[in-house]
Amino acid sequence: MKTAWFTACAGLLAWFAMGCSSTSASTDAGADGSAPTDGSALDGGADAYAPLTKLEDKVYVEFILNVHDWVFLDDSIATVNKVIDLHEQYNVPVEIYLTDPMIRLYVSKAPSLVERLKTSKVVAISYHVRPPAPYYSDFDWAGLKSMGDSELKTLLTSYEEHAIDLKTGQPTSDPGGYEFLKKTIGYAPYVVASGAGKDKVSTTLAEIYKSKGALFTLTHSDSGTAWGQTANGLLMRPETVDFKTYEIKDDVDFETVVLKPAMDQIGSTRPAWLNVKWHEDNFYTSGTPWGNVYYSDAKAKTMKPPPYDTSAYEPVPKKTDAEKATQWKRHETAMQYMLAHPETYQVISIRDLITLAGL
Length: 359
What we know:
Elements: H1 2-17, H2 25-28, E1 59-66, H3 73-90, E2 94-98, H4 100-109, H5 111-119, E3 123-127, H6 149-159, E4 162-164, E5 171-175, H7 177-185, E6 191-192, H8 200-211, E7 216-217, E8 230-231, E9 234-236, E10 241-243, H9 254-266, E11 272-279, H10 291-294, E12 295-297, E13 302-303, H11 321-340, E14 345-347, H12 350-357
């Protein structure tokens, strides 16, 4: 393990030598949104500002919420607010990934939620894309890979500086993309969930995001992502196990049924990285709300070409009250469990990784 750690450090030093601007995580973060003072927060809860300056033989846990549901907007708004409520109650960091359509809808329909996203001390904002963006995974309806370098960079820059039209898939003249999210929250979203591949679309995207201030990118693979790995000039968010607790539908014992399979995957690897993930619609639907808009077969992800009928999202079943309660119980149990076992688990924020990397 020491050899792996020194190898990772060498990779980081090489990456730093490429040159990157200094970023203060504590300056970027909002200072408001304190946890409740009614005694409901557990003692020893993770501090969103606690610097992680060295790695120990622990499992580092990051809670991640991917937000993308423009179909059931009221449910999305209520869910994100409730997630923030819980994380403030337990003083546990949460990294929230927003798409271009979602941040623009929140700005126009839920300004108080936008303020919470900006100021809550437990929230860190990152960025991801969804259809109809042609650079979403396996969704290249625009033929990006066949474009010349200059044409490709111009188009991708336009997408990341302008709003996307959900019907045509084209960038509009309105402000949007990564740039709009950056200006709205007051700092460059830390992680971009595109740009980790090796094709020219990924490398061009990474160049654009890095120029706008992004620090991390990510990928999911069976072999995991070790601390210190890089892709296209961006540091990779580490991940030993992609922990999708929402995939278990029944109310079961968290430790033995939910957590044990993930820990079996991790085995004796230390330090390890356990990324606990939800989408906001996992709390209230039993399917991707916009799946039928952009795919002729949403499960097989058989892509439709534009233009798109944005009303064609049925049928997407809603969860029953009991099913909703199960998901919320599991989310809260996951936080409680990690905080109750500090000898094994340490909950962290993406800002801790920024501090650890010396950015």
